[in-house]
Amino acid sequence: MEMATARDRLVDSLVANDIITKSSTAEAMRAVPRHEFVDADQQEQAYQDRPLPIGNDQTISAPHMVGQMLDLLDVAPGDRVLEIGTGCGYHAAVTSEVVGDGNVYSVEYDPDLGEAARERLADLGYDVAVRIGDGREGWPEEAPFDASYLTCAAAEPPSAVLEQTATDGAVVGPFGSGQQELKRLVPQPDGSYDAETIAPVRFVTMR
Questions:
Q1: Which of 71, 44, 49 is nearest to 60 (CA)?
Q2: How far apart are CA 163 and CA 190, in angstroms?
Q3: What is the mean pLDDT of residues 103-124?
Q4: Which residues are catalytic?
Q5: CB of 59 within 8 A of CB of 87?
Q6: Which residues contact 5 (CB under 8 A, 6 or more apart)?
Q7: Burial class (CB in 10 A: 0-12, 13-18, 19+), 65
Q8: Are the C-beta atoms of 104 and 94 separated by less than 8 Å?
Q9: More confident residue, 176 or 178
Q10: In Å, what is the CA distance from 58 to each residue of 61, 129, 142, 152, 187?
Q11: Which DSSP letter does residue 154 get?
């Protein structure tokens, strides 16, 4: 099956099952070639709705999770977004399709993955800034952000990420040390946050 056809079928399924509800999210996922973000031996599985290994004990998130998180961010063209955990770069590419070139800032702890993602994104025409570093620190030099998300599980929401996100924005990610839960957090001016729990999840833990 041709990759584009398989991709459309996957997105059609996610839309039909109300897993993704925003047309901007669906269009972004139709636009990004997920198979280009995995190794050659994984490409035939790229449009199955499941995580796949990308090396160094990391994974590319299942498409439904990427779409659901993008829906929850509720971003629009021109919004500046912070990503913690670049991985292979797929999630950043999908987000970039919505907010536009130069508006996604991604931090990756693993130098090998980060460098590979930076090259891959550039080769595919995505203007995404990738920094190698500790995601717990966010990216203070580029703050504030309209929204932020984590692709790895943190026991507690990193305070720096909350501080660097606008008070009318959202922080989406998996949180919890034992049972992880996908949550949408809305930072408040006093440094606290409102939290909405979405669903139990299982992500690679933040390093």
A1: 49
A2: 10
A3: 96
A4: 61
A5: yes
A6: none
A7: buried
A8: no
A9: 176
A10: 9, 20, 26, 9, 29
A11: B
DSSP string across 161-185: HHHTEEEEEEEEEEE-SSSEEEEEE
pTM for the full predicted model = 0.95
DSSP state of 118: H
Pair 207, 87: CB distance under 8 Å: no
Give strand pairing partners of 48: none
Side-chain half-sphere CA neighbours of 198 within 13 A: 18
Beta bridge partners of 193: 187
> What pLDDT does 68 receive?
97
- Kind plus residue range of the DSSP H or E element containing 84: strand 81-84
* Spatial distance between the Cα atoms of 168 and 147, rounded to a whole number of angstroms: 9
Return the closest-CA partner of residue 175 out of 153, 203, 196, 205: 153
Spatial distance between the Cα atoms of 69 and 111, rounded to a whole number of angstroms = 25
In angstroms, the CA 73 to CA 146 distance is 9
